[in-house]
Design a protein that fits this description.
about 325 residues, binds iron/sulfur cluster, TIM Barrel, binds S-adenosylmethionine, about 30% helix, single chain, about 15% strand, alpha/beta, globular
Amino acid sequence: MPTRANDLLGRRLHDLRISVTDRCNFRCTYCMPKEVFGREFHFLPAVELLSFEEIARLVRIFIGLGVEKIRITGGEPLVRRDVDKLIAMLAPIEGLKDLTLTTNGSLLAAKAAALKAAGLQRLSVSLDSLDDAVFRAMNDVDFPVARVLDGIEAAQRIGLAPIKVNVVVKRGANEHTIVDLARRFRDTGIIVRFIEYMDVGTTNGWRLDDVVPATEIFTTIDAALPLEPLEPNYSGEVARRYRFRDGGGEIGIIASVTQPFCGDCTRARLSSDGQLFTCLFASKGHDLRALLRSGASDAEIGQAIGRVWVARDDRYSEIRTSLTKAPHKVEMSRIGG
Ligand code: SAM
Ligand code: SF4
Ligand code: SF4
């Protein structure tokens, strides 16, 4: 059985991101543009989603293959009913060292306590601007920023820590508000991470001109709040870390476009309908749900996953500029960030 084997570029399998739904109550312009994900869009029916039992079984198998870190994502994971029950099933699994979740924060004020009680260890909240008008325009459903801030506060009060705040920086949309975000979360224990806008999927109309490069993000924040670099917490950390020179915490910058990190990419992704993807930019998944529902044993499923991993040679971000034809890529809302 090809357990714990590295992929073709020598990368081990260490992290798994699990999307629990393809639905979301936001329509962020860079992820689920309204024109595409409108009333007519066909989201997956419930029977197509992996059940919590199926997810937990796969998690045990993935841990046997070397996975130590799981992130629950979506779509918006908190719109999946009883997602805290899934957390409660996963948290005690032996060998799982880190269990976290990424959310848009809209339902967090109501759900933070249940998530914590279920055993969630920490949390990332996406929040693109503190400016209410900018935030409402980016989520495109007129959702007020105050309610996300309430959610973050509730999570902090309840002791879900550390909390990270993820900010996608898009040219002409929120770049003028990033210093406020860095300032607001200083001295709070919350780490803000600024992320370059990526060409995930095919529906967001991505253009290189819309990317605010990491160097520019750094210069903008450094000019207002002087920064100095910090060592990575661990090898392969995707965010570059910086600390405020006068104390008061740190920020991160994720340069997925301008400084790709495929060489250290140890992440697999599972869509809510049980497709395994080996890259955020993959065009095709591998159907684990069919295997699960065909009566395959854990060993057989583990072997199938191992075969997919050892054949993996993905490094899209490193080669995007040399591709003559854009591949048909899976949507971010299907496989999570
Ligand atoms: N709905 C949840 C949320 O927004 O946190 C979880 C799923 S969302 C797809 C995961 C992350 O992907 C979010 O932090 C989001 O900002 C990020 N994301 C989505 N589209 C992106 C893009 N085109 N470029 C960079 N990050 C993106
Ligand atoms: Fe929804 Fe998250 Fe995508 Fe925004 S980034 S549309 S919150 S899935
Ligand atoms: Fe990993 Fe693919 Fe992103 Fe490269 S492009 S870092 S291989 S997910």
